[in-house]
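Annual report, structural modelling task.

Input specification for the guanosine-5'-diphosphate complex:
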Amino acid sequence: MTALMTTQHIKFRSAEFATSASKVSECPLDIGSEVAFAGRSNAGKSSAINALTRNPSLARTSKTPGRTQLLNFFNLNIDQCRLVDLPGYGYAKVPVAMQLKWRKHLNEYLEVRASLSGLVLVMDIRHPLKEFDRMIIDWCIASELPLHLLLTKADKFKKNGIMKAKMEVKKGLPEHPEGLISMQSFSASKGDGIADLERQLVLWMKPAINAISVATDSNATINHEQIISPTHQTSPSED
Ligand code: GDP
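The model returned the following structure:
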């Protein structure tokens, strides 16, 4: 009950660049909860992150020279809650050898990261389910990582077009456990769908936030095992 009373609210506009990592060993401590954003280059991922955080320059951070590494972490107002931008994937400018290296490190990140509570896959509503998207979807299904499909640039379609696109994506998905994959339309330019996206992220991060509130409440030292997201346990050794 105390936890309910004191649970802090995530303010997405509080997001601040924290650090870049080119491999898992450079990531922040694997505690709390983080949600990662993936998407092919030009899908609209930066615009979606900027719309969510109401910060028009935030995700540009990930595109500035020196920070075009694999993972960019953004801290939120709640301790140990983060957004993660997985940039660079599919960039035409990046040499193939580098892309293969990124693919290896990305797989490793997705596999080992216990605090990863869910993944948002950003796809241009007009061009969904490309090879990279399918790879991410297959991986999420295999590892039972909750996945939210963000069909962006929805302003390019009328209502009917949006509905049709959603139905086609739904039909095109591989078999998966019920409730693992959710989907919404989104428009960064119009600001449509921000509230739905926020709701999904809060849902994923809530268990960790509650655990943090309880630990803070009881004035106890935060037990790191307690605040690791329970939604994504990849191996028995993490239990
Ligand atoms: P990223 O490479 O996935 O980070 O993609 P960006 O966010 O940089 O967007 C790529 C292009 O799509 C840019 O020209 C954006 O202005 C445009 N774009 C992004 N989101 C939207 C949207 O919701 N609607 C429309 N019409 N264009 C968008």
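Residues 1-6, 222-239 have pLDDT under 50 and may be disordered.
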